């Protein structure tokens, strides 16, 4: 695998648990379609091996016009003036604003943003759509709108860009694996690969045979991720897609989930 490199400089982790020996940095560009396809791989890793690693998303949307976008946000006298504002940098700042309400809130926002980009065909670069996503994620809207316009969210995004440069990440998506020994080099994997490749790397980093966790009941999985594709469900439970489709339709008839209109894949959502 040609796109594997060692990273000598590690950013001091703030969330690493002593019970989880690996910290996984995932570098994504929110506007790059290839980054979205990582979702299934990351979810499978979380479900099967989440007890081995902590996950940190790094937003790597490098934009020369970042300052212009920030000026637009800061110069608007009220939230209503931002409704029609649209800029490619705004989704990244919005994710950081959501993260100020907690890591889980930020992750929910990022996943919902992906869903909107793939399914709803809405302009996720507009303030009105980003506010709608925040409401769907049940964020504190007053706090979100205030944080969205704050320098704190902008600086958090700028910090991600600094991490991207420090680790010399030149391609998105990219994974960087660090073990618990801060003196060891990290392992950078540029590009997107099959699940088994990341599984093998994780095992090499842990330096022991991985012990997978059994996936939870389907209803619990939907509570965790809200929206899942038939392909994801089949992969997570290691069953044929036809069987996954049958189980999902059964729960749709029970009115536990609903099917979403999407041309590119079969998607299901918790009701």
TrEMBL record:
The protein, known as: ClpXP adapter protein SpxH
- Description of how the protein assembles with itself and partners: Interacts with Spx.
Protein's job: Adapter protein required for efficient degradation of Spx by ClpXP under non-stress conditions. Interaction with Spx stabilizes Spx and exposes the C-terminus of Spx for recognition and proteolysis by ClpXP.
**HAMAP family for the chain:** Adapter_SpxH
Its localization reads: Cytoplasm
Name any one GO molecular function.
Answer: isomerase activity
Keyword vocabulary terms for this entry: Cytoplasm, Isomerase
Q: Which family does it belong to?
A: Belongs to the SpxH family.
Q: Does the keyword Isomerase apply?
A: yes
Q: Name one Pfam family in it.
A: Thioredoxin_5
Domain of life assignment: Bacteria
GO cellular component terms listed in the entry, alphabetical order = cytoplasm
Q: Which gene encodes it?
A: spxH
């Amino acid at each position: 695998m040609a796109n594997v490199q060692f990273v000598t400089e590690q950013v001091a982790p703030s969330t690493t648990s002593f019970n989880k020996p690996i910290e996984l940095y995932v570098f994504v560009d929110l506007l790059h379609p290839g980054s979205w396809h990582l979702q299934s791989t990351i979810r499978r890793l979380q479900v099967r091996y989440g007890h081995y690693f902590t996950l940190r998303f790094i937003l790597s949307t490098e934009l020369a016009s970042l300052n212009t976008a920030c000026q637009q946000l800061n110069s608007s006298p009220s939230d209503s003036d931002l409704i029609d504002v649209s800029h490619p940098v705004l989704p990244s700042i919005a994710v950081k604003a959501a993260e100020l309400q907690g890591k889980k809130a930020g992750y929910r926002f990022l996943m919902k943003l992906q869903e909107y980009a793939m399914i709803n065909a809405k302009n996720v670069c507009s303030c009105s759509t980003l506010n709608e996503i925040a409401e769907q994620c049940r964020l504190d809207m007053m706090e979100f709108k205030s944080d969205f316009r704050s320098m704190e969210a902008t600086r958090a995004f700028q910090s991600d860009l600094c991490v991207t440069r420090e680790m010399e990440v030149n391609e998105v998506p990219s994974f960087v694996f660090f073990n618990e020994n801060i003196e060891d080099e990290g392992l950078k994997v540029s590009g997107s690969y099959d699940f088994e490749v990341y599984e093998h790397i994780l095992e090499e980093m842990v330096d022991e045979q991985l012990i997978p966790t059994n996936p939870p009941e389907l209803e619990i999985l939907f509570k965790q991720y809200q929206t899942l594709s038939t392909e994801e469900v089949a992969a997570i439970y290691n069953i044929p897609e036809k069987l996954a489709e049958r189980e999902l339709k059964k729960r749709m008839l029970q009115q536990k989930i609903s099917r979403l209109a999407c041309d590119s894949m079969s998607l299901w959502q918790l009701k």
